[in-house]
Amino acid sequence: MSDATLLSATRLEGRALIRVSGEDVRGFLQGLVTQDVAMVRPDAPLWAGLLTAQGKALFDFLLWGDGDDVLIDCEADQREALVRRLSIYRLRRKIVIEAIEGGVHWSREAGRGVADPRLAELGFRWLGEAGGEAASGWLEHRLRLGVTEGVGELGSDKTLWLECNAAELNGVSFSKGCYVGQENTARMNWRAKVNRRLVVAPLGEAGERTRAVYPEIGLMVEFRRVEALGDAVLPAWLAGALD
Q: Span of the secretion signal (predicted)?
């Protein structure tokens, strides 16, 4: 592979874009998602979740500012479901929620894009054209840093948002107003009691705790009690939260 190809091999396969536009887009999303949408800018994306009323993760995504609009960087396989879910809350508002063309791009090295808002070590991310060579190494890079994402790992209506390590990975604002699932999320944070965590571990025998297995890189994602993390990957950002 040539140097030019390596430089262009940045597109994250499996990611897609949604545009939310219309009247008071940020106010609409502010009452739904876990992050403070007022803080979203083109150069300052935020990782957020859309939860059940009980505070369990349904979808996770990155929010990007685009003028008065907000772009949602989400799983391609979940894009239609996310559009449908958001549309339920639209009611009579003059809000348009639509899938759009475009690509999500990533590089480990600085030079283009902005640092991933979850963890700087994840690398740099930007929105661009849908074409170009697919990036390689993203999955392993992310998992070896202990970061989980997507319905396959977080589950849908299975895991409380703080059990997804959302507080440690900048996925929730505790100072904004109400949103769907806010009551349980705020209560858990106030009590400082998260009994279970999603963690990455070396590949082993899958069991009831297992959410995803990646034999090609020798890793798996499991949902474990904090007193029984065993051989889980414990990067500094997570280990500090468990002290």
A: none
Cα separation, 94 vs 70, whole angstroms: 15
Tens-digit pLDDT profile for the chain (243 aa)?
333 334 468 999 999 999 999 999 999 999 999 999 999 999 999 999 999 999 999 999 999 999 999 999 999 999 999 999 999 999 889 999 999 999 999 999 988 999 999 999 999 999 999 988 999 999 999 999 999 999 999 999 999 999 999 999 999 999 998 999 999 999 999 888 899 999 999 999 999 999 999 999 999 999 999 999 999 999 999 999 987
Q: State residue 54 phi and psi, 5-degree precision.
A: -85, 0
